Structures are given as structure tokens and as C-alpha cells.
């Protein structure tokens, strides 16, 4: 059976001068403040985790992620792994489509590293992950530079 799910997430930037590093798709990105949140606030991994939760119907972000944060687990890849742990045995992720809206940083130089890292985390080939980035022509707060917004659509083949 084919299932499709959507996940979204957004975070504001930390104030300028913050020591927190920006992480997107598990990849550290220099030259821009990190995102506000208890974890690394990786909007790409959070949106992806939410999409996996849409497939499994088991929410990870919220109470489960909060418990992990209290135990010192702030790497969002751990949340994704927790969500993937609820996938039915024999399930296979077929395709992931990611859209990121942000004025800063310029994302195109980082997309291939993000794609490669996500493919490794998901156990799929990089060509099954599409990533686009936009400023949204500055029409939203994200396009004006106050944070980053991400939407993920995930397609999976789930055994019946």
C-alpha cells in the first residue's frame, strides 16, 4: 500500500550574536544564527519527522521529543530515528520532497550535502530526495528573514 504524508515546521532565528549553530537536514551551516528551540531546531528534520509521524500515526515531536530534550538529546536526527522506529517492518520510503522558505542563508550551496545526509539517515539513494528553496519573494516573515519554514511530502510503500 502506498501512503503519502506531509510534515511542516518553522523556527525563528536566535538573536544575532548567539552561539547556537544553524543546522538544516543535519548539516551545520556557517554564517547565519541558529534557530530558536530546545533542540538544534533543525526545521528540515522536524518537518521530515512530522511526515514520518503522518505515515505511522505516532507523533514524536511534542511529548516524546520533549522527554528526549530533558535527557540531553538535542540532535534532531534522534527524533527522526525514533519516528522511523515506528514504521511497519518491511516499509520502504520511496520519495521525499522538501521545500524550504528562507531569505537567509543562501541555501543552494548546501543542498547537496543536505540531500546526502538525509539519504543516509533514511536509507535511500539521494536521487529519491528532491529539495527546493525559495525566498517566497519576501511575502512572508520567513521570506523577510526572521526564520526558516520547511514543508516535506513523504511517499512510502507500507506492507499490508
Note the topology.
Layout: E1 2-12, E2 21-24, E3 27-33, H1 43-56, H2 63-70, H3 76-84, E4 92-101, H4 111-122, E5 129-134, E6 147-157
Parallel strand pairs: 4-5
Antiparallel strand pairs: 1-6, 2-3, 4-6
CATH topology: 60s Ribosomal Protein L30, Chain: A
Query: What percentage of the residues does DSSP assign to strands (E)?
Result: 25-35%
* Strand arrangement across the biggest beta sheet: 1-6-4-5
pLDDT averaged over residues: 95
Helix content: 25-40%
Number of helices: 4
The assigned structural class equals alpha+beta
- Rounded to the nearest angstrom, the distance between the terminal CA atoms is 6 Å
Q: What is the string of helix and strand elements? A: EEEHHHEHEE
Total strands: the figure is: 6
The CATH superfamily bears the name 2-C-methyl-D-erythritol 2,4-cyclodiphosphate synthase
Can you tell me the CATH architecture?
2-Layer Sandwich
Biggest beta sheet summary: 4 strands, mixed
* Overall tally of domains: 1
Low-pLDDT sequence parts: none
What is the radius of gyration computed over CA atoms, rounded to a whole number of angstroms? Answer: 15 Å
Coarse morphology: globular
What is the CATH first-level class name?
A: Alpha Beta
Architecture overview:
- With 160 residues, this protein is α+β, with helices and mostly antiparallel strands.
- The chain has one domain: 2-C-methyl-D-erythritol 2,4-cyclodiphosphate synthase (60s Ribosomal Protein L30, Chain: A, 2-Layer Sandwich), CATH 3.30.1330.50.
- Helices cover 27% and strands 31% of the residues.
- It has 4 helices and 6 strands, in the order βββαααβαββ.
- It has helices spanning 43-56, 63-70, 76-84, 111-122; strands spanning 2-12, 21-24, 27-33, 92-101, 129-134, 147-157.
- The strands form 2 sheets. A 4-stranded mixed beta sheet has the order 1-6-4-5.
- Helix 1 packs parallel to helix 3.
- It is globular and about 50 Å long.
- The model has no long low-confidence stretch (mean pLDDT 95).
